[in-house]
Every structure is written in structure tokens, then in C-alpha cells.
Write a structure and sequence with these properties.
Tscrpt_reg_LuxR_C, five-stranded parallel beta sheet, DNA binding, 5 strands, DNA-binding, alpha/beta, Arc Repressor Mutant, subunit A, 2 domains, 9 helices, elongated
Length: 212
């Protein structure tokens, strides 16, 4: 891709891991983008004012202080025209990402492929009004869940009972049981005992999203 084809679009990379930050910066610079980097959300907020980027590539986890999701929320409120590509080690978007609008998602183990990274970034920048745009890999069962369903699945994985989940959600046990049933169906878990379903659902959640 030539420099002119990108019109020197400005990209702000927000990543606390130095090697990853340098890798992405080098890849984008070689593709003709104008790049600045930040190692924290606070640093990124200041650079956004000074650098005036067209898009941000933001890691979810930024060490101590505000997270990448906090940064996206803040900037979307003050600069709704910005595009965002959010990075994570998770195989599927966490619930916190699913609640965001106009945000693309890319698993971090894919950023070493320049074609995938550029495709994800261009998609984020060319579809600013898209409701949601993720993930850039083959969807799995967990990615089919809504943000609320993913939250409930997380509570199931934590070992909470239906009544405890209902209390957390400020709803009835019956409503919670119905939602969990829909979650099992989306995960392809049917015709098993309730206990076995919970074990299988927990396994899928942890294998996909880790223990968070």
C-alpha cells in the first residue's frame, strides 16, 4: 500500500507492552500511516489532543490505571468521529467490548500478519457507523452471545447458583433460568443434566476467555 493511498492517516497506538507497540508502529509506518504511540490511557488522552488521530489501536489491558475500554468510552464521548481497533488476547470479544459501538476487534496473536492488521484497521475506519464489527477470525460459540448473556455465562463460570445470579442481576430466578437455557442452546449444549451443562459451559467460557 502506498503512502498516498492512506492520505497520511494518523494512527495512535495505545499499548503498554513495548515489543508489541513497536511491532505495530513499524508495520503501520511501512504502510504509509503517520503513527504516534502511548503506553497508557492517560498518555493516550493527552496525545489525542496534540496529535489529532484518525483512529486508535487500543489494547484492553494497559497495566495500572484506566483500561483500554475506559479510554474508548472517554474518547467516544468527546470525539465520536474517531475509529477504534481494540486488541486483546481473548479469542472472542469480552462483554465490555460488545457493549461498545463502532469498535472493531482483533485478537493480538494476529497482529504480526500485516494483511490482517491493515484489513482490520481499514474496516474500522471505513465503517464508522457500524453498530459492532468483530471479530476478525472465525466466530466461535461464545462470540454468538449477547453482552448480557456473556455476563451471565461469566457468573455461571464463577460457580454462582441461579438464585445468586438472579440477585446480582436484580431479576427473578425464572428469568435467569430462561436466559441460561438460551445460553446453553447458543453454545450447542442440549439434552444433558443441568449440572453437566454448567460444567461444559464453564469449560467453554474459560477456554475461550480465560478466568477473567
Amino acid at each position: 500500500m502506498s503512502e498516498n493511498s492512506n492520505f497520511r492517516r494518523r494512527i495512535l497506538i495505545v499499548e503498554d507492552e513495548n515489543l508489541t507497540r513497536v511491532l505495530i508502529s513499524n508495520l503501520l509506518t511501512s504502510e504509509g500511516f503517520e503513527v504516534q504511540t502511548a503506553d497508557s490511557a492517560l498518555h493516550a488522552s493527552k496525545l489525542t489532543k496534540d496529535f489529532d488521530p484518525d483512529a486508535l489501536i487500543v489494547d484492553i489491558s494497559l497495566g495500572k490505571g484506566p483500561t483500554g475500554i475506559d479510554l474508548v468510552h472517554s474518547l467516544q464521548a468527546t470525539r465520536p468521529y474517531l475509529s477504534f481497533l481494540v486488541l486483546s488476547n481473548f479469542a472472542a470479544p469480552p462483554a465490555s467490548i460488545k457493549e461498545l459501538k463502532s469498535v472493531a476487534y482483533l485478537q493480538k496473536n494476529q497482529i504480526s500478519d500485516p494483511k490482517v492488521l491493515i484489513s482490520a484497521l481499514n474496516s474500522a475506519m471505513s465503517k464508522p457507523d457500524a453498530a459492532q464489527n468483530y471479530p476478525f477470525k472465525v466466530p466461535n460459540e461464545v462470540s454468538k452471545l449477547t453482552a448480557q448473556q456473556l455476563k451471565v455465562l461469566g457468573l455461571v463460570a464463577q460457580g454462582l447458583s441461579n438464585s445468586e445470579i438472579a440477585s446480582r442481576r436484580n431479576t427473578t430466578v425464572e428469568s435467569t433460568e430462561q436466559m441460561i437455557g438460551r445460553i446453553y442452546k447458543k453454545l450447542g449444549l442440549e439434552r444433558n443434566s443441568a449440572a453437566t451443562l454448567r460444567v461444559q459451559a464453564t469449560k467453554i467460557y474459560r477456554e475461550t476467555l480465560g478466568n477473567n
